[in-house]
User: What shape does this take?
Amino acid sequence: MIIDRTHRTWIVSSCVVVIATTAWYVVYAKNSPDGPSGGSPTGLALGILGTALMIACGLLSVRKRLSRWAIGTARGWLKAHIYLGLLSVPLILFHAGLRLGGPLEQVLMLVFALIIISGLIGVALQQYLPRVMKSTISAETAYDQIPSVCRSLRASADEAVSSVCGGLFETTSEPGAADSQNDLRQFYVRQVRPFLASTDGRGFAVGSASQAAALFAQIRVRLPENFHETLDQLSTICRERRHLVVQHRLHHWLHGWLLLHIPLSMTLLVLGLAHAIMSLYY
Ligand code: HEM
Assistant: This one.
């Protein structure tokens, strides 16, 4: 969770700054006979302040990459990032005199809006997904450990099946118990192992809890009792793998939005520079 009581000071101060800036803008707009403009002294001041806040937001990246630059806590930086980023919105809108401007400015506004929207989506995901992850998954596994946990689940399943069937990929032609061994081996190699070996866990019958229950019930009635313990082990391993699939997907969402937010903020930097140069010199 990222939004909690410790945000109160930031929320209250941000509201005060928004009210003060709005009052400043109203007075300035009333006293501008030709209407507010980004090039007027007040318009420029608003633009410079808004840009300074955006640059301050971008410093979060620098802070993350430079571990030596250990000023403040990660949570403190994130709070500053969120509220300074949001405060840049009224400043930039007032700088633009609540207009969209020419084509370059329109693109700039669109990129800016997308950064703010993706940032808000990111906050919402970081706020709620960890809770969903905790409630749907019994033991949360760190994201980068997921592949190694998957490998060890597959190794345990291989071992469980091999211990009752011998080699995994050989077929036995002996009658009697060998039929059951072949049955279990084929079930494992065709239905279970591909799911355990897959990277995303999509498109497999045992990847769905209900289909897995039906398949395990079917094979259970065909196999003698001495194979049931192995089936139970496989069923538990499949359940754990399904949890990891969900966890992988949630992690993907939790971090995937940054793939939009970060490149957009780089684009904003370049377009913002172009806008400043064009407005000042042409
Ligand atoms: C012009 C404004 C903004 C710029 C230039 C900007 C830029 C960035 C950059 C470059 C990062 C990546 C940091 C990193 O991991 O290296 C980031 C992360 C993030 N931004 Fe923004 N951002 C802006 C506004 C916002 C706003 C308004 C919000 C929320 C309402 C927001 C929420 C976030 C969040 C939650 C992260 C993830 C931080 C983490 O998980 O450590 N951003 N932003």
Remarks:
- The chain has two domains: 5-137+255-281, 143-254.
- The radius of gyration is 29 Å.
